[in-house]
Amino acid sequence: xxxxxxxxxxxxxxxxxxxxxxxxxxxxxxxxxxxxxxxxxxxxxxxxxxxxxxxxxxxxxxxxxxxxxxxxxxxxxxxxxxxxxxxxxxxxxxxxxxxxxxxxxxxxxxxx
Length: 112
What we know:
A hairpin with a 5-residue loop joins strand 2 and strand 3. This protein has helices spanning 15-27, 33-63, 71-81, 85-92, and strands spanning 68-70, 95-97, 103-106. By secondary structure, it is mainly α. It has a 3-stranded antiparallel sheet with strand order 1-3-2. Helix 1 packs across helix 2 and helix 3 crosses helix 4 (85-92). Helix content is 56%, strand content 9%. It contains 4 helices and 3 strands, in the order H-H-E-H-H-E-E. The longest helix is centred in the middle third of the chain and has 31 residues, at 33-63. It starts with 14 loop residues before the first helix and ends in a 6-residue tail after the last strand. The chain has one domain (15-111).
């Protein structure tokens, strides 16, 4: 990895890290080190997203399962309770409007 690619800057690696990258490149028959690094980043992002979705599911299906509020009330509640806009956005997907009212509840069918 002595050249600078389009996406990454060349950095010094410990020999053990380079050996691991070489092993992954060989094992997955990857054309470049960039492709292995991209794969590792994608895997990491998938894990982070999965953890975020699980955190939201536990919050909505646990703490807020019996809650009922207007959409504005839910937004205030969620933004105060969750740590990111992405989590609040995911949490809103758990809501369903109460028929004939302007309030929303947690759709328990999503909690299964």
